[in-house]
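Researcher: Good morning. I'm working through a list of sequences from a screen, and I'd like to move beyond sequence-only analysis. For each chain I'm collecting a predicted structure so we can compare shapes side by side. This is the next one on the list. No need for commentary yet; just the structure.
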Amino acid sequence: FVLGQNSSLDPVQLPGGFYARGMNVVNRGGIVQCRPGYRCLTALPDGLLQGFHVFKPKIGIPIVVVAVSGQLYVCEFPYGGWRHIEGITMSSIVSQVFFQQVEQAVVSNEDGSITFLSNPKNLLIIQDGGFSAGVSFDGTTFEAQRGIGKLPVGGPMAWVGDRLWVARASRVWASDLGNPLAFVETQYVSGADSLVFSDTVTALATNPAVNTGQLFVFTNTTTSAVQAGVRARLLWSQTTDFQKEIFKVGCVSQRSVTAQHGYLWWFSNYGLTSFDSAAQTNVTSSLPYQDDAMTDSKARLAEDLSGVACAVFENYLLASVPHASNFNTHTWVLDQAPLKLGKNEPSAWNSFWTGTRPVQWATENINGRNRCFYVSADVDGVNRLWEAFIPERLDEGCPITWWMETRALNRDLPGKLKDFRYADIFTTELEGQVDVAVFWAGSYRGKYKRILTKRILASTAPFQEGVE
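Model: Good morning. Structure tokens for this chain:
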């Protein structure tokens, strides 16, 4: 099954190498297998789960910061519990809180002068969309940023060109150079205090393909590029196409924007797209969005897509979407490293994953190991911090239900009457107790009929010295 899942075609029309659909599976080298497991690190406080971020200080182990109903909580290594941050309150009714890690190299003094830090420090900036003052976190202290020339209230943020860019409604502000907490340059540099766009800004991102620093500003229907690598604000008005609309393709969710292999991915009103496919909209009348193979799940998405959350881990691209629910019940999985039959073959979609309802994803290297975290508003009403891609293919020690449906096998003679005789099922890498069921159905009509129910016990050898 080297080409992966494709549910956009009827199973009768699928060529060899595809399977029709799957749940909770991955596909490497053409072998369909159970997905890696999930492990719960800690239960979080009850309430509206608004998001989280893994903050990486200059020195020390990354810290997990979570927002629930306007309150902030910190989970420190090994992330088995949490503590509440007193004195900081954000909006308790907004659906999401925005996080952005930045670097501060300059400090503004009360007399208007600036001081360059000999040791720049990392900060985490937290916003609730414009309802409360922004908050900064340096790894130890949380501080609300209020006052003239301070951090403007806003929502989507990005750190590009040594400046913090903050969006609110249709406007975008840029911080002072090297100082994400100061916005006073416009007081002594001529020009407007913000950039203005045609509609409400839904997401900000850096273009990973441009080393000089380019900011992407998304609305629901457009993408604009800002030449954020021009460091001197005085030159902005003199720079050709400093702010330019480049695509008639927008973005519906800040959390859906992620970068992989030098390309930017995001979720538009049409579906999952990437920078190279969006660029083609300048020369074609149709958008070649990248999630056709997931049509079976995509056809039942909720109207509100503002909470779609994407992530990249190793060669996998994950997209958690609200399938038949207002929560992200399906996580689509795209594998960028399948066995390719030709250089123009697309990457292979694996399946959708279930079991939890991810709100936001984050990946980070901790103590030399890449780890993938997410927070989930689970179906039992409990908010939890999870880790994905656990080597054991178990969720919290429990077996994972998974399945795949092959293509129909009478494609060469459509409509020809056939009898089902038998099928060979090849399995590998079994461990412990494995329950297998096999069903078949006609290509055009008829329900699935069970033809095999089997329990396989594959003992696990204790490869230890002195043990037979």
